[in-house]
Each structure stands twice: as structure tokens, then as C-alpha cells.
Amino acid sequence: MTDAVSVTAPAAPTVGRSLFQLAAMRFRRNRAAMASCVVLAMITLFSFLGPFFVAHKYDQVYSSYVAIPPSLEARPAVSTLRDVAESIVKRARVTLLEFSTEGQEFSATITSPSPIDPRSIRYFDRVDEFADTRIVETLDGGNTLKLAGSLNRQYFLFGTDTNGRDLMTRIMLGGQISIVVGLLASLVSLGIGVLYGATSGYLGGRVDNVMMRLIEILYSLPFVFLVVVLVVFFGRSFILIFITIGAVEWLDMARIVRGQTLALKRREFVGAAEALGLSDWQIIRRHIIPNTIGSVIVFVTVVVPKVILLESFLSFLGLGVQAPLTSWGVLISDGANSMQSAPWLLIFPAAFFVVALFSLNFIGDGLRDALDPRDR
Amino acid sequence: MSLLSLCKPAKFGLALLISCSALLAGASAQAESVLRRGIVGEPNAFDPAKASLWHEYYLMKDIFEGLVSYDSTGKIVPGVAESWSTSPDDTVYTFKLRPDAKWSDGTAVTAHDFVYSLRRELDPATAAMDPRLQFPIKNARAINKGEMPADQLGVRAIDDHNLEITLERPTPYYINLAAHGTALPVNRANIEKDGSKFARPGTLVSNGPFKLVEHVSNDHITLAKNEAYWDAKNVKLDKVIFTPLVDQAASVRRFEAREIDMITGFPAAELGRLRKAFGDEVRVSPSLTVEYYVFDTRQPPFDDIRLRRALSMVIDRDFLAKEIFYDSAKPSYSMMAPGIPAYGAPSKVDFADLSMIDREDMALELMKEAGYGPGGKPLDITIRYSTSATNEQAATAIASMWKEAFGFNVTLHNLDLASHYGYLQQGGEFQVARASRTPEYADAEATLSLDLSSQKTYNYGRYNNPEYDALLARSYTEADPSVRSATLHKAESLLMHDQVIMPLLNIGNLWMVASKVEGFHDNALNEHPSKYLSVSE
Amino acid sequence: MIFFVLRRMLSAVPTLFVVATLSFFLMRFAPGGPFSLERPLPPETMANLMRTYHLDEPLWLQYVYYIRNALVGDFGPSYVYKDSTVAELIGSGLPYSLQLGSMALLLGLLGGVTVGTIAALRQNSFIDFAVMSVSTIGITVPNFVVGPVLTLIFAIGLAWLPAGGWGDGSARYLLLPVITLALPQLAVYARLMRGSMIEALHADHVRTARAYGLPPRVVVVMHAMRGALLPVVSYMGPSAAALFTGSVVVETIYSVPGIGRYFVLGALNRDYTLVMGTVILIAVLVIVFNLLVDILYGLLDPRVRHD
Questions:
Q1: Residue A284 to residues A46, A197, A265, A300, B249: CA-CA distances in angstroms?
Q2: How many CB atoms are located within 10 Å of the residue B298 CB?
Q3: Is residue A41 one of the residues assigned to a domain?
Q4: Lower CB density within 10 Å: C or N end of chain B?
Q5: Contacts of residue B248 in chain A, CB cutoff 8 Å?
Q6: Which of B272, B387, B396 sits opposite A163 (nearest CB)?
Q7: Tell me, what's the ipTM?
């Protein structure tokens, strides 16, 4: 805890720099925090701008590439193509006489005891490996067809999910949603929690008693029903996600800030402020809240991941983001289901999530240090 | 409470010692043969009248024995009744009970017990979960509705060992119902003495191969061999320990750690890995469950049969079966799954055997006639399903198929299970919804009767075709089994032609059974009584 | 002090009443009911069930019944676990949850405070970095990932510990569930402790104590730690209540016979009475722990007074 006296200390004018400038300067000197800012910015850019640079759409299903592991090589791998062609002719109910590839082109000869329906070549275009299939030559009175077409090269750096969608694109989309949800819902809970806790703790007495009982009530309400009922009455709006998450996550924050406030309000500087005739609100704003900032920042770094993970539970209940949209929380919980058979589905989204939260922690520490007037 | 046992190495060591000695004790008492079975959830009750879920009936049928029961291959075999006969018009069944059938307290199982139990099942005051399955018995439905006293039920004890059951009308599948969990006997003295707490370990009196010994919620349910059981000499297991495993992935891990000998209901996505690791211990066999999407006929444009058929045609069920269900499911084009001998091959939808490209061309044609799709109006479709990984995957794949074929914009709407089905059953309007059906007894009527226009709860899409209703009505009065079967097939064809219900897949039964377990046989009914299982060391 | 505690006890009555009332009506607005299964029940059966459980009566009357029965300690039958009453279900599961929860709380609290303090004393050192890294992972990696990973390593890979089940309740069965449950708590406590400890070490009275040449250990324990514990204690109230009422994830992953499943799975099954019972239990625990926390405030910081 720091004394608020020093927060409002008159040091600033003599140095000629505002408190904010001082804090910013201190923050810039913190290398870990600055590096984290860069990392977080990169993850944000990756999430928001990445989709413009990848060839896949987040909901594009590649039925030929279901749950394939990450690879730097382009798909399809040439060695697998013959098997692909075999399975195609099986579906088209013809036989494959010959199949070969050359560069980006392939050629195949298919045959059947009776004339082949020329539409059969559509079976080749149906799969993601081949494109622009055309009949080069009709032999044998239509019983044998010579085909040619091009190979459709795709990259799936992070592999694909269990529906055959590019995981990297989905992580980008998930990042957009989780960053926004994490940021907004945490701000909601931060705002309500700090104000509520500080007010309750500072005013004390009967007001505090009633305000804290309200928190106890909210802690105990059955959350699942709360969500289900909200969905029933308000439909599935994006705003509702923040409201629901904000509504539960501010409670801890309020309790922590109130605890700090109870200790702060007996301190000399608050008494001094009272003696100066400051109103309750002014004291809360200028002296109480600034002095809780350390714990608040630390707790925000706890709330953000909780909020992002809670969102995936909301999706489970039909609130939250809906398929085919996704979020990091949803990707992680889906990935957890197949962690043994398709570990990349868990590792990649979890890695992004953990790295982002690591950065957030260092930024939080940096901010705390920067705003701590004792650490000049 | 060993609150500090984690912090105290001495105690921890002691615990290890104890478990080691337990291991040694286990080794010395090798004669005891124990089977550890995983079940997909906590049983909601041990009172047969209050059970309704598949995994509950596994337990029930181990603890109790009905007049007839299923063996390990899903065949009906004599139970408490050693033989039975039917009247010429097939409406009266006379069961001859074996004289040596005993309750676990040593008293004899008599015909009066069955009279008592069936009346109890149908008595509205019991509020049984599944009395519907015994409705073919004379007056059963009226009694359950409270319109008639329970003693009017068509079940009569001729004497202690002869039981007569009269049916409303000839019901060719009745014997399957006599084997159902709802027809299991309960002990009257037990219930009168212990009231609602009769079905507890230590209190419950039962007549099956095993008796209930211990129940720790969510941890285990222990059954021990019932020495009073008439066929006890053929029961090879001394103990069966059921472990409820709600989390599918956790159930696989318990099997991998060799803590559980048999599990079922694990994610199909794990099949590839598990087959590699466990080989023949992984078992996939066809079930009677059909997963389908239903269209709400109250909602235009889904009242248009052309649109429904077109939507159904472009679904690549082979892809769903192979890629989403990892070959554990089979493409389904019919309401019934194959596997009911008396019904034979189900009636498929007319386009089932066309090639995918023919179906696509036909579908585009139909869609054009309906006025939607390329060249027509655009359409927004919402698919509703209950939250689960495979449901979402299937919906995603289907959405992409519809999008690709017709350019429709498809949104997905998931809700938790109770909300999803609660909504449908309360008559909520929708466009397309996911559901599945497993006939509760081996007869097509079990499934087909759910789409009658008079059905308000089951018939989510409000299918209403008088011709269909008439066909089913005719099946109820038809005495000749082959004519009856043909009538039901006709009804199924009609239902499929109209495609209010669009079948997708015939789901498989997934089991992992340790190689040391003997006597396990795959069967479509998924009946696996512990009586026939044994464990080799 | 006694007066303060008594007053809080009294104010718990209206709190519980409001919780019960709000929860009761909230649940009934949700679609589906305890008998909405994937395979629906015929109307007759549904009617019998609704009548037996008085669900066919007007909602307000059901509410009056519920409150009247609850006042005499009758929380009704479970609608899903039909052989048992709510009191029996909670009564049989609570000891397990209490045991698991108290161990996790102890581990989380002691571990978190210790490593948080160490990290604060060695701010920006390697130890600090390591502690905060582990703590970040503890917060960000959800328990439905931690649990399975621990099982894969210790139960399947190394085969040291069982993969699940309560067994005889010995340490080998409890170790993994306790760690899974405690890890996120430990991580939060460590972060809170580190943050407030760094501040406390800069506070005037601690600096003064140091300046007087008191041994560092005394300074840390006697002076800095007391004030620094405030946010930790604040967070402990609700987190202890949550730990003691079990965790659905840990219970389903490890087959633990606690009551954590009832709150979430009970709600998903629409087992109204069971959820009500759990809600009231949670409310009682939250109230009790918040009271304890408020008393602890006064002990840790004499400036906090309860008027």
C-alpha cells in the first residue's frame, strides 16, 4: 500500500512533468513490460490482420483434409494422390487404369464395362486435391476416359480441425473474439468492481452491509440458469456475453477493493482529506481508488484469462460465440477433447493464449511499478 | 479426515504401505472374480419403475430378472419363466414360472410378485418413467391415465407359478416388452417395509444374478453374486463394480490405466488411436440408433416437400460416416436401422441408391421448382442441435454441404440438452433440428409410431400424412406377421418419401472390452448382462 | 465483536431468503424440465410425474410449499436421482467435497502465500520469474486440460497413481484431484501475494522497521506480511466457498463422489430441488466465509474496525 499523500504529492510541478508522464517514462524503462507490449501487439495484429493474408476462410471445410497434423509442406502430398484417385473412382463406380502427376498437373485414365457418364469427372473436382478436371480423350466408345487437371496446393501450417478447417485461420478468428471479450468483459468487471468495492468499503456501516449482502446473493445464484434464462429472453446477442461475464466476474474484484478500502479509510491522509472538506465521492476517487491500484492491476491479470475461459462455457450453453465462429476458449476446450489423437488442436490455441496472458502479466507488473510512486 | 495426509510424508508412506498390503491381499484372494464396468452416467435410481436410461437398465437387469431376459447375444431367453405359451389369437400369454426362482432374502418369486410389480409400474401414483412400454397389456393405458383402478390390469396369477397376461390386441413384439426393464419384478414386502428407501444397498431385495452391495455416488456401485439366484452356479463373477464415467475422455483414460475392464460411449474421434493401441479390445458394431434431422413443416418453406427432399439429397452421408464418425457409423437412408430380424431390411428413401452426382443434379432441379437456390430466392437456414462435439461437427459439415450446393446461408444454434429437447417437446418452432431415435424394443412400431399426426411430443416436425396414420392403424389390427411387416415397410417408405425426417446416420455401439473379459458379444440391441461375462486372469 | 457476528448472522436470514426466491423463479423460466430427455415421455407419464412432484400446481404455490418445507429442513426429493432426497445427496457428497476442498485450499493458500512472498522478496530475479511463469500457467491453463495431462503423465505414462476414483480415500487417490483443484488457486494467491508484498515492503512502517535494524525475517513476517495478506484474505472468502462445494470438472475427470456436479449437472438436468439445495449451501458458505474474512481483516490490520 502506498500513501495517497504521495500520489497527490506536489513533486510534479517542480520537475515539470505530469504524473502520467512520469509513469509512462518509468514504464518505458521496464524492458520486460515493453517486450510484452510488442508481443501482445503482434498477437493482436496476427488475429485481426492475419485473416487478410491467409488463403483460407475460417468456415471453409476441406473435406479431404480432416484433422491433418501441422506441416510446412504443401498439401496434397504427391505420394497420397494415387490413393485419393482410387477412392474417387470407387465412388464413381469405375476403375482407375492409370494415374500420374507432373508438377502441378495430374492425368488419369478411368474405365468401366459400360460407357462412363462424363459427369463422373465431377468426382475429381469434388475433392480438395484436384481442380479443373477435364476430359482429354474419350476412348473405347466412352468406356474409357482420359482425364487431366491441376493439383490444388494448400498450406495448413497449424494443421486442420476435426471438420477440416484451417486451424491457423480459426486461431486468428478466435483471437479476435477472445481479445475483445477478454478486454471488454474485464473492463466491465473492473469498472463495476472497483467503484462498488470502494464505495461499500468507504461508506461502511449499513450501506456496506447491504452492498455486501447483495454480492453474496449474486455469488450464490445458479449461473447456468442465469445464462439459459438470459438467452431465452434476449436471444443470442454478443453484448449479452459481456453483461453475463461482467455480472459474475466483478464480484471478486469488489470484495478485494472493499478489503483494501477498509484498511485505507482509517489512514491519516483520508482523515486529512475529510478535514479539508472533500466530499465522499472526491475522497473515493482521489484517495481510495488510486491506492488500491496495485491489487486491482494484479487481479485484472487474473480476471482476463478467467473471462476468456468462461466464454467457452457460455458457448456450451448456447450463449457466447456460436459455431462456425470460435474463440480461444472454445478452441482450447475442443482441443482438450482430442488431446491424445490430435494434440495440435490443443497446443496451438493454448500456446497463443498462454503467451498472450504472459505478456499481459508483465505489462500488469510494469504498470503497477510505474504507477507506484515509491519506486521512482 | 486425512486433511494433512498430503503434508505428512509419514502418513503418505503409511498409505502406500496399506495399498501395497491391499495388493498382496488381492493376490492371495485370487479366487474372487471381479469385473469392473464403466457406465456412461450415474444411475438415477435403483427402483426399476424410476429408471429410464440405457445405463440404468444395465444395472437393473443385473440386479433383477424378468419373466424373460436377454442373453449376451441379444436373444430372448427364459428368465423367471421357464416356458410360456400364447393363445391362438395371440392376446393371452401364459408364463410358467420356475419353482426354484428365489428373492435374495430366500423367499420364492411367485406370479403374485409380477402382478404386484406390473400394477405398481402402471399405477399413476408410482409415477414410473417408462410405463408406456407396458401399454399393450389390457387396460394398462387407462390405468396409467387414472381412468381405471390398477387391479383391472390384464395380469393375473393363476396360482403361485402360473401367470396370465392378457393384451389389448395381438402384439407380435410383446415378448420383447416382457424382457424390458419396466417389467422387472420388485419385492412387495421390501417396498412395504422400507417405503421409498427400499432400493438401497443392504435393503434392496432382488431376484437377479447379482445384488446391490454398495453405492458411492459418482465413484462406484458394487454388485455381488446373489447366492439365492436359481442359476447361481452359472454366474461366474463374484463381484461387478460399475463406475459412472460422465466424462468420455476420462473413461478412456481409466481404461488405459487398466482400472476399468469395459467402457462404452467414448468419442469416435479417438477410434484411430485406440485401435492402434488396443487392437481387438476396441469393438464397433452397428446399433439400432438412427441420427436424423427433422424439418418443421409448420414453417415455410419447409412445408414444401421438394425443398426438403432437395436438402436431403445433397447430404454426403458417406463423408459424415467416414470423417465425422470415423467409420463407426453407417450412412442411413431409412428411419429404421437394420438389425431387427422380424422387420428385415428397412425401406430406404427412393434416392438412396443414386450416385452423388445424380442426386446433386436432381436436387438442383427440385430446388429450382421450389423457387430457391441458384436462380431462385436465397434462403437462411438455422440448424438447432444439443451441444456436443460430434453434433457440432455434423452440423458444420451439413451447413457447408447446403452452402456449396445451393448457396444457402446456414447458421448453427446449439443449446444444452435439456433446453434443446425441452424446446422441441414443448412445440417450439424451428427450421431444422437434430435428434436421434433408438427403438426401445426390437420392433419397427417402436420408432414409426412416433410420427403419427396424433403424436404431439415426439413428432417435432408435426408430420401429418393421413395415409401414414392409416397404414400404422392397419398394422395394429393385422394379425399376419408378414402382412403387418409389409404394412410397416410401406409406412416407412412413405415417411422417407416425404422427408420430414431426414435420416443421416446409423450410429455404432462403441465398446472397449479388455481381452481378459470373456463372454462379450456384439449385438445391435446392445444387451450385455454381467451374468454371461467372466474374467480370466 | 460478538455483537458484530450476531448482527451478521441475523442479516444472513434475509440474504438466504432472497437467494432462494430469486433462484427458484430463475430456474423455472429456463426451457425444459427435469423430465425433458432426448427421448420424450408420453403425455400420461408426464402428467403423472408432474402431479407426483407437484410441478403441475401454480408456480407461486410451489414456491410457498418449497419455502415452508425448507424452513423445517425438508429440501424435497431430487427430481433426477429419484431414490434420494436432496438432503441425502448433499449430505453424502459433502464430506468428500469438504475433504478435497480443504486440502486444495490449504495447498493453494500456503503454497501461494509462500511462493508469492519469495517472489516479492526477490523481485525481478530468476526465482520471481519462475514463480510468476508457473503461476501464469496455473491461471491460464484450465483444469479440464491440467487434469487430463496429469492423469496421462502420472497414471498412464508412469503408472504411479490411479487415474480416478476415490478408492479408500488415501493420498494416492487424492493427490491428482487436489493438485488440479489447488493449482489455479495457488496461482491466484501467489500473484495477489507478490503484488501486495512488493507494495508492503515499500510502505513507511516497514521501511521504518528495517531502518531500526530489525532482522529481515521479522520485518517480513511481522510487519509487511500482515498488511499484504489483505487482498489474499479478500479473495479467500469466495474461493473457499467454491472449493468446499466441489468442482464439476475435477469430479467428472477423476470420478470423485462430491457435490460439485450437482450445481452444474443438476442445472443442466433441470433438477430444480437439487440445484436449490446446492444454491442454499453455497450461499451459507459464502456468508460464513465472508464473515470470517471480515473478522480476519480486523486481526490483520487493526485499523479495520467493524462498526
A1: 40, 10, 9, 20, 50
A2: 13
A3: yes
A4: C
A5: 337
A6: B396
A7: 0.86
